[in-house]
Amino acid sequence: MSSTMNSIAAPHGQTPGNSHFDPEKGWTAAQLQALRAQFPILAETIHGHPLAYLDNAASSPMPLSVLQAMQEFEQHQRANIHRGVHSLSQRATDAFEQARATLKNYLGAGPEHELVFTSGTTEALNQVAYGLWGAGPEQAWLRPGDDIIVSGLEHHANLVPWQHAARISGARLRILQPDAQGQLHLDDLAALLATGRPRVLALTACANATGECPPYAAMLSLARQAGALTVLDAAQVAAHGLPRLQALECDFLALSGHKMHGPMGIGLLAGRRQALEQLYPLRLGGDMVEHVSYQQARYAGLPARLEGGTPNVAAAVGLAQAARFIEATGHAAIDAHVRALRAQAVQGLSAIAGVRVLSPQASAAALVSFCCEGVHPHDIGTLLDERGIAVRTGHHCAQPLLEHLGLGPTTRASFALYNSAEEVERLCAAVAHAVKVFQ
Ligand SMILES: Cc1ncc(COP(=O)(O)O)c(C=O)c1O
Predict the structure, then answer these.
(1) What is the CA(77)–ligand 1 centre distance, in A?
(2) Which whole number is the average pLDDT over 73-100?
(3) What is the DSSP annotation of 109-148?
(4) How many CB atoms lie within 10 A of CB 4?
(5) Which of 113, 287, 327, 428 has a CA positioned 20 to 30 A from the CA of residue 52?
(6) What's the CA gap between 367 and 212, in Å, rounded?
(7) How does 313-325 read in b/e, with b if 16+ C-beta sit within 10 Å?
(8) What is the helix, strand, coil percentage profile of the chain, to 5?
(9) Taking the domain 70-327, which CATH number applies?
(10) What tens digit of pLDDT does each residue of 4-41 get?
(11) 412 lines ligand 1 (CB under 6 A)
C-alpha cells in the first residue's frame, strides 16, 4: 500500500471523531470547518452566494479521501478482477474483496451474512424482487396466492419491482397503509400478516418523501415470525443512524453509495446467506458461473452468483473509503448533528405562516419535507437556488404516498455532517421570503 493510501485510511486527524464530540454543543466551528474542507464541492458559489447544499437525501458529495482512494485504484491497481493470474489483476481483486470486507463491517454483518455489490438501491431491490420469481413457477419463492406486503411509505424503487413480481408470479400485492399523518402502525401490520400467506415484507427505514421513520426493527421481526422474507430499504439511513445488520430480523438490506458520501453507480445488497441463496440472479454471464456448456450453466456460489459481469471496482473501493470516513468521523456524532439540524429546520419552517411540515415528529430523520400553501415547490426551489441553497422539489419518487396524504409535490431539505445551523437559518429565511413573494 502506498503512503497516500495510508494517510487516506486514517483521516482521524482531519475529522472531529467521537472523542471530541459533545452532543449538547455539537461540533465546534473549527471542527465543522475542518470537516467542510474535506468536501471540495462545498466551496462552490451559486449565483454569487456560498453553496448551502441541502440535497443530501438525493446525493451527498464525496470527501477528498474517497476521491483519492478511487484515483489510487485507477492509477496503481486497475485491472479486471477474479479472472487474471497476473499481479495487477490480483491487486484489483484484493482491493475489491477488501472493500467488501470493510462494508460488511460497516453494516455490522455477522458470519451468517453476505454482501453483494450492485449499482445502487434500485438495482439491489430489483434483484430481490426479480430473484424471488425469476426461477420460474416450480422453484421460485413466490407462488400464486402468496402475499407480498409493501409499506405505503416506499420510494418507487421499493414498490414498482414488487408490482411486477406480483403480476408475474401470481402473488397478491398488499399495501401496509400509513395513517393520515403518514405513520405506519404495528397493529396494522399484524392484521395483514394474520391473513393470507405472507411471503415478503418490503419496508423503508426512513421515507425519503416525508422523513417518517417506521418502527422497522419490530416490523421486520413480526414479519419474519409470520414466515415472510424481510426487505429493508436503508437508502436514507446509510450515512447516519444505520442499524447493525446483526441486530435486525432482516433478510435483505439495500443502500446506495452516493447517499453516504461514496460514488454514484455503486450500492449494495446485504443479507442472510440463506435468503440471498433464494434469489435467481438478475444478471447472467461472466463471473457468476462455475461451469458452462452450450446448453446449460452451473451458477457459482455467493457472492459471485449475484455479481455477473465486470463490476465498478473503483466505485466499490470509493464506497469502502466513504464507510471508513463516516466511521472515523463518528456514527453517533453524525446522527446527533443531522438530528439537531432537522429539529432546527422543523421549528423554523413551522413558524412560517402557510408552511406545513410533513412528519414533524420524525426526529431520527435527516430530511425535512414541507408544503407552502398556494406556492408551487418548483418556485420555492428556484428562489432558493438564486440564494445558493440547493433543495429538492417534486414527488421524490413517492407519488402514491403523497397522493395518499392528499398532497402534491413538496420541497425537501436534507442534511449531512457538514451542514451548519447557519445554513438552516438561510433556508428558513429564504422560504419565508418565497412565501411572501409568491402567495
Ligand atoms: C428511500 C429510497 N429508496 C431508494 C432510492 C433509490 O436509490 P438509487 O436511485 O440510488 O438507486 C432512493 C433514492 O432517492 C431512496 O431515497
Answers:
(1) 30
(2) 95
(3) --TTEEEEEESSHHHHHHHHHHHTTTT-TTT-S--TT-EE
(4) 14
(5) 327
(6) 9
(7) bbbbbbbbbbbbb
(8) 45, 15, 40
(9) 3.40.640.10
(10) 333 333 333 345 555 567 777 789 999 999 999 999 99
(11) no
Instruction: Tell me the CA distances in angstroms from 160 to 31, 164, 402, one per residue in order.
Output: 42, 6, 16
Long-range pairs of 308-311 with CB within 8 A, sequence gap ≥ 24: 308/281, 308/282, 308/283, 308/284, 309/283, 309/285, 310/80, 310/81, 310/286, 311/81, 311/96, 311/117
- DSSP letter at 289? E
Q: Is the CB of 161 under 6 A from ligand 1?
A: no
Q: DSSP state, 239?
A: T
User: Is 213 among the residues known to form the active site?
Assistant: no
Q: Which residue ranges make up each domain of the chain? A: 15-59+330-438, 70-327
- Average pLDDT on 311-324 reads 98
pTM, two decimals, is: 0.95
> Is residue 131 within 8 Å of 280, Cβ to Cβ?
yes
| Catalytic residue selected from 213, 250, 397, 428 | 397
Name the CATH architecture for the domain at 15-59+330-438. Alpha-Beta Complex (3.90)
- Helical spans, DSSP H, in 279-388: 313-329, 331-350, 377-386
pLDDT, tens digit, 9 for 90 and up, residues 126-168: 999 999 999 998 899 999 999 999 999 999 999 999 999 999 9
Rounded to the nearest angstrom, the distance between the alpha carbon of 212 and the centre of ligand 1 is 15
| 426 contacts 389 by C-beta, under 8 angstroms | yes
Inform me whether the pLDDT recorded for 177 exceeds 80: yes
Beta bridge partners of 113: 272
Calculate the alpha carbon distances from 240 to 49, 225, 265, 366, 417 in Å.
28, 28, 20, 8, 9
Task: Tally the residues of the chain.
Answer: 439
State the burial class of residue 430 (Cβ atoms within 10 Å of its Cβ: 0-12, 13-18, 19+). buried
